[in-house]
Amino acid sequence: MNDKETLARMNRAGFIKNNGRVLRAMILLEKNFKKLSEIIYALEVNVSEDECVKCLNYLFESGYIRCRQIKNKENADISDFDIDELEAKITQKGTWLMEGVITDELIEV
C-alpha cells in the first residue's frame, strides 16, 4: 500500500467515525431542532468545522437528519443555504440507525 492509499483509508475512517459523532450529538436533541452552527461548535473539539459540514451533508442527503430554515421554519435543502441559516433534527431513519434497526457502512454507531 502506498502513501496515497494509506491517506485515503485514514480519511475514510475519520469520515465514518465523524458521521457517528455528529449523529450521536443529534440524537441527544432528538425532539428539538438545533442550529447547525451550534452542533458544529459543540463538536469542534473532536471534529473540524469542514469535517462536520461534510458529515452534515452526508447525513442530510442520506435522510438521517431533517433541516429547516431558522427564520421561517420551512424545510430546506442543506446545500441551498448557509449553515448559519439552518437548524436540524434527527429523522425516524436516523433513530433507526442509532438503534441498530438499519445499518450504514459510512457511520460508526
Low-confidence stretches: none
Helix content: 40-55%
Mean pLDDT, to the nearest integer, reads: 89
**What's the order of the H and E elements?**
HEHHEEH
- Write down the overall geometry: globular
| Fraction of residues in β-strands | 5-15%
Radius of gyration, whole Å: 14 Å
Number of helices: 4
Q: Given the helix and strand composition, which structural class is it?
A: mainly alpha
Quote the distance from N terminus to C terminus. Answer: 28 Å
Biggest beta sheet summary: 3 strands, antiparallel
Q: How many strand elements?
A: 3
- Placed side by side, the strands forming the largest sheet appear as 1-3-2
Describe what you observe in this structure.
By secondary structure, the protein is mainly α. Helix content is 49%, strand content 11%. It has a three-stranded antiparallel β-sheet. α1 (3-27) crosses α2 (36-43). The chain is globular and about 50 Å long. The mean pLDDT is 89.
